[in-house]
Amino acid sequence: MASRPKKVAEVFLNVPYAQKFERLFLAYIAGISAFGLVPRATLEIPLSTRRLEKIIDLITICRYSIHDLSWVKTDPPPPRTPRFNMPFELGLAVAHQHNGKAGGHDWFVCEARPYRVAKSLSDLNGTDPFIHDGKIVGVFRELCNIFARSGRQPSTQQMQQIYRDLRVRLPEIKRQSAATSLYTSRVFKDLSVVALDYANTLVI
Q1: What is the C-alpha to C-alpha distance for residues 26 and 86, in angstroms, rounded to an integer?
Q2: How confident is the model at residue 85 (pLDDT cuts 50, 70, 90)?
Q3: Per-residue pLDDT for 4 more than 50?
Q4: CB of 19 closer than 8 Å to CB of 156
Q5: Which residue has the higher pLDDT, 7 or 142?
Q6: Which of 54, 66, 79, 132 is the most exposed, having the fewest neighbouring CB atoms within 10 Å of its CB?
Q7: Burial class (CB in 10 A: 0-12, 13-18, 19+), 188
Q8: Is the dihedral of CA 190, 191, 194, 195 positive or negative?
Q9: Are the beta carbons of 139 and 27 closer than 8 angstroms?
């Protein structure tokens, strides 16, 4: 009797959907895929559904979650308002881990600057954020630290290769779905498939 294929672990990716964050967003997709993991995001959730319930469901099915809290600024359109989605979704992940079974979910916090989380979210004192310095190579470096015990251990150079491939393919992926942004469900899914396929041939 043939054995069932092993389910690939999924990673809930909680990041700001901002144009200036696109390079780091692509870096997260490339880096997570390099470890043989599947990135998931709220971009997949249709706007017509009960969003909060779907976000909770998405976090629940993921083995890991990464929460980037580096976007600590207000949105330009009036009224100028800070966005609380990222820390809110982090709270959902913390609650899920606390209420779930041991080893069911692990969450990680990323930041661009050291010590800022201690001021912006002091309830996390005692939790060390992973500082990526707002750079692509920093994201790759910290993903290596986050998934140091993962079965597959890609190099940052291999992550960079996957990232470059995504950058090359992005215009065509956007054209195929008539998207003007990479922050759409279709573009995100296509990027994730391309990244994982390439990673599976590149990283052994």
Answers
A1: 18
A2: confident
A3: no
A4: no
A5: 142
A6: 79
A7: buried
A8: negative
A9: yes
State pTM to two decimals: 0.91
Higher local confidence (pLDDT), 69 or 46: 69
Nearest to 182 by CA among 39, 1, 8: 39
Q: What is the 3-state secondary structure (H, E, C) of 7-25?
A: CCCEEEEECCCCHHHHHHH
- Amino acid identity of residue 178, one-letter, is A
- Give the mean model confidence (pLDDT) for residues 88-95: 94
| Residue 181, CA distances (Å) to 27, 71, 188 in order | 16, 18, 10
Encode 115-151: b = buried (16+ Cβ within 10 Å), e = exposed.
eebeeebeebeeeebbbbeeebebbbbbbbebbeebe
62 to each of 8, 55, 58, 93, how far by Cα in Å? 10, 11, 7, 10
Q: How far apart are CA 51 and CA 188, in angstroms?
A: 18
User: Beta partners for 107?
Assistant: 65
Query: What distance in Å separates the CA atoms of residue 97 and residue 101, rounded to the nearest whole number?
Result: 7
Q: Which helix (H) or strand (E) holds 82?
A: strand 81-82
Write the CATH number of the domain with boundaries 10-202: 3.40.50
* C-alpha dihedral sign at 84, 53, 64, 12: negative
